[in-house]
């Protein structure tokens, strides 16, 4: 029973770490990256639709991105959605067939703001891990009458080790993203 709780906890914590890494990828660096546009929602015929479902994204150069819509009538909506996206600072242009996005060079001040943003996202991910740990600890405590206190104590030590391991994974991803952001 304890093994089941720990297996479920491992699975949930791994998903939380993956979600944090995806969240880090949406923060822009000096380069144009298609992952930054994952959360762009386009108003397509009255319903918000992810950009990736409406167009293909290509990265021909370090600071530019070409978005080719599957439906040419969505060009204006895609352009507007990119312009309205906060923390992107991109200025899209369209030539009737494609949307070209050129990312401006980041200033040192802006890089520091992005580092703060990434740290906040990292802290949110750690809070999520601690929430998962707390719920799992409650599940372990509920098993006390069936298993025994020694087994529960052993399970809690394993739970703490799991939590520490996943927090370290988030810290490593955070350090890599910070280095990427501060790289000129």
TrEMBL record:
Keywords, ordered alphabetically: Coiled coil, Cytoplasm, Protein biosynthesis
Protein name: Ribosome-recycling factor
Organism of derivation: Microbacterium aerolatum
Lineage of producing organism: Bacteria, Bacillati, Actinomycetota, Actinomycetes, Micrococcales
Function: Responsible for the release of ribosomes from messenger RNA at the termination of protein biosynthesis. May increase the efficiency of translation by recycling ribosomes from one round of translation to another.
Chain segments annotated as coiled-coil in the UniProt record: 145-172
InterPro entries on file: Ribosome_recyc_fac, Ribosome_recyc_fac_dom, RRF_sf
GO biological process, one term: translational termination
Record-linked PANTHER family: MITOCHONDRIAL RIBOSOME RECYCLING FACTOR PSEUDO 1, RIBOSOME RECYCLING FACTOR
Subcellular location, principal: cytoplasm
CDD domains the record matches: RRF
Gene: frr
GO cellular component, one term: cytoplasm
Record-annotated membrane-spanning stretches: none
Compartments, record wording: Cytoplasm
NCBIfam families: frr
Record-linked HAMAP family: RRF
